[in-house]
Amino acid sequence: MNHAGVAMMDNRQLAYVEHQGKYEPPLEEMEPPCMRFSVNLWKNEPLDWVELICLLPNGFILILRVNPATTIQMVKAEMVAQAKMMPMSYVIKEACEYQVYGISTFNIEPYTDETKRLSEVQPYFGLLSLGDRADTTTISSDYELTKMVSGMIGKSFDHHRTQGSPEIDDFRLYMTQICENIEMERSIYTWQQRLLYEHPLRLANSTKMPELIRERHPTRTFLIVVKNENDQSTFTLSVNEQDTPFSLTESTLQKMNRSQMKMNDRTADYILKVSGRDEYLLGDYPLIQFLYIQETLSDSAVPNVVLQSVYRLESYINHHNEQAMVPKRPPPKKQPALLPKTPSSLWDMGNYFQLTLHSISNVNYDKARAFKVGVHVGLFHGEHKLCAQRSTDSPNGNFDTFLFNDLVMDFDIQMRNLPRMTRLCIVIFEVTKMSRSKKSSNNKDSTLKDVSYNKNPLAWVNTTLFDYKDNLRTGRQTLYTWTYADDIQSDEVFHPLGTIEPNPRKEECALVDLTFHSSGTGSVRYPSEEVVLQYATDRIRRDNQMQQQLPEAAKPLKELKDLLANYTGLDKIYEMVDQDRNAIWERRYDIMCELPEELSILLHCVYWKERDDVAEIWYLLKQWPLISIERSLELLDYAYPDPAVRRFAIRCLHFLKDEDLLLYLLQLVQAIKHESYLDSDLVVFLLERALRNQRIGHYFFWHLRSEMQTPSMQTRFGLLLEVYLKGCKHHVAPLRKQLHVLEKLKQGSLIAKKGSKEKVKTMLQDFLRDQRNSGVFQNIQNPLNPSFRCSGVTPDRCKVMDSKMRPLWVVFENADMNSNDVHIIFKNGDDLRQDMLTLQMLRVMDQLWKRDGMDFRMNIYNCISMEQRLGMIEVVRHAETIANIQKEKGMFSATSPFKKGSLYSWLKEHNKTADKLNKAINEFTLSCAGYCVATYVLGVADRHSDNIMVKRNGQLFHIDFGHILGHFKEKFGVRRERVPFVLTHDFVYVINKGCNDREAKEFCHFQELCERAFLVLRKHGCLILSLFSMMISTGLPELSSEKDLNYLRETLVLDYTEEKAREHFRAKFSEALANSWKTSLNWASHNFSKNNKQ
């Protein structure tokens, strides 16, 4: 900074001086400064310097000419130093008492992160102000909220549009109270508790060494390397399975003090951190219980940890630097509005449900072909229709608005029997004529015109019959519809699982004008839980008195078990006949006492359009024993909309450990879409867990934000994001940094689409080196895994990949200098949600196998969708595609896929000794078995040699899951893939250690592994089906209706006995083996046409 100027406002004149190290001219002799405000200051090419106009606390104006790479901290120091050399220097305080402010898009912004460079913050006009440090607790309500909503939630969320709705206002109020209560808890955390919140421990459920690891460590001891952070010295120690982090730290310090002749250090002053990531070993847990230790030992590697002083921990420093938070007064509770009359109870009303249809307007229909437009109206509970639908057609003719002359529609269900979660579903359709010729039965030469009518659905809309306060909707309302998408793969006319949100694009959509009838006695409310339970109690008491007069013989439990066994797989539960339904409902108390896990079957026997059944199931759920996590998740899909059922499911999920919650978080966030109101037990459960565990909060944030461009989810998910960010201010800064990285990578991906591969590679690297961009990548958490902290990007190692969407290969420097760098693939243009779902299901399967004592060495990389068709994928290092291996070993010939020894030769090349090669073959055999079964069950399609990879250690894994659930590709009407799963001759050659004998003991063992793996998944078929059911409303084209689950039912064969299921799988295994030549032929064609080696 070699150029500075000062000026002072003094009534009507502005004085200026060129400063040369001391101040001499009197104020009255100063000339006005020449200040030029540039609107496009930061839009120009990279600048060598910028001119800043700085407003100082003593009233002077300072002009600084600085490099754009200068940090805010350096600019502040220079502003204070210059101010102290001017008149009125006595008013200038120390630099630490000031904060630099600039003008941003929405407001005057305090630059709280002073490590940022000017090129990152880009103050408008280059105008800065030096002022008193702001109290961050006071700006969070207005400025920070606006900034968070606009910058972090996404532009799609209209904060102002969500104001004025009573439901939204009450939701915000209630959620704010929850957040403030948890914030108060966090304010009294010790530094250890704060560390566990920011970096939660990853623990296995059991304290024992897993059987598979014990086989490799029969003495139950293992080695661990501890590095001293201060001097980088390392110590290798032998520990047993019951040693704890404290005992390991104690042993390390003793060894370190002996070797370095130091005084004894206190064990409590140190903590163990996993090398290369922000993950800690802390607490009175056995070392073997930490998942990092288990994962490393499973890889036949040695765990590496760092001995770190607690006084250097960010959690410790921040805890001691921050002042104790002043307890806030809770916001005043909202007083309920006084009703003119006590509302009538819905259960006192015996009349039938009615509504009046007035008109539909703004309908986009084919005026050339359609001669009518009509409406279907139905009442639904979940996906089940409560009574016959009502339909009507408009008068003939083409109109913009269709009037129905205040048509009253009567429905065949009494008001008292309407379930609490009843939905009114409406479909607008057009009527077209379709004529076809047919032969006359009397005269073979003559033809008749057979005219039929098509009703083509155009738009749909759903709404609840009751509002969020249990009041029945009454009065005239306008409903804003959604276009009926062409890709909805369903034969049903209605769309009851669709959103209940109105279409926000009100000017573009069709409108339905109708009136909900009132009772004429004021408002009508669904009875409270207390009233329902009392009704059920009275009814049960009467029934018991009658049964005492007519006693029945007790029925055997085996009879009930045999009856339930017909429906235990979820595959036939929707086909239940009335006779079985009545028989199961009659044994409801036996099920509760003896077979509580079969609750879902009983729920399908409830007549939801009968209030007596509804009351009794609410009564039973209050007493029902807690059920397993797997069966609880099942109750949160679209088939169970009743609030008491979903509340019971959440009660069971409260015992879910954090690691297991992360495993199912994707489905639980999607299940929010099945909630009828903003506030629900599921929303509260997820919010509380996210606020108490920052790792859960990280993925909670990204799962919500990735769908903010979906119009039907903008309000619901936007409000949840707003609440979460307000409730965890400590998490805002790291998330904002990740968003800045996302924006820069989006800009980089646009560069990558502009030219040849080599040209855009250079352009991308120049972009990443630019000082205006490079600072964004410093000190960030990896969005794929927040345990990894990155200190910056390595431009020279970044590149553009050779595929249609030009993904970016980005290399980040690990903040831990002694650890491996972080490699990611950034994709712009591909929908990663299906990949994310498939990888998560592979992770679930891996957990199920491990619980059963089988480790198939699955290599399940991380993948995250961050916005619509935008996301990141973890790069698996030291791996190569089958295509590149075959082309390398087959000298790039078209017949390389038929050369069985290519893969085996590649493994030998990377595993020189016999022991290493045997280990690699074992890794290959196990992982191949796991992926064969997993891809078969999930129906993973489009398998070719470029999306199956092998690591140098032998682990096989699949990538790119664009087609699942049996959606196999076809060409000219012929299905490309004709095998259940990939098992080629070169795979068999590796499994058999270099021979092709399919009767070899190694291959028989491989087949046995596959069969065992399949039977384990089949045993947990209910969980797999439930997790996919919960994803039906995600908008994935290959998972849009109940029919898409049929593939899973066919592969899992849940209605077979175990022996019959084994025989079924053996037949599929033999089919894959017999047709492996077809796979090789496909791969040869693929290899010939492409060369994707990166």
Automatic annotation (TrEMBL):
The keyword Disulfide bond does not apply. One of its GO terms (cellular component) is cytoplasm. One of its GO terms (biological process) is cell migration. PROSITE patterns: C2_PI3K, PI3_4_KINASE_1, PI3_4_KINASE_2, PI3_4_KINASE_3, PI3K_ABD, PI3K_RBD, PIK_HELICAL. Keywords: ATP-binding, Kinase, Nucleotide-binding, Transferase. Gene3D superfamilies: 3.10.20.770, C2 domain (2.60.40.150), Phosphatidylinositol 3-/4-kinase, catalytic domain (1.10.1070.11), Phosphatidylinositol 3-kinase Catalytic Subunit, Chain A, domain 4 (3.30.1010.10), Phosphatidylinositol 3-kinase, accessory domain (PIK) (1.25.40.70). It catalyses: a 1,2-diacyl-sn-glycero-3-phospho-(1D-myo-inositol) + ATP = a 1,2-diacyl-sn-glycero-3-phospho-(1D-myo-inositol-3-phosphate) + ADP + H(+). This is phosphatidylinositol 3-kinase. It comes from Drosophila gunungcola (fruit fly).
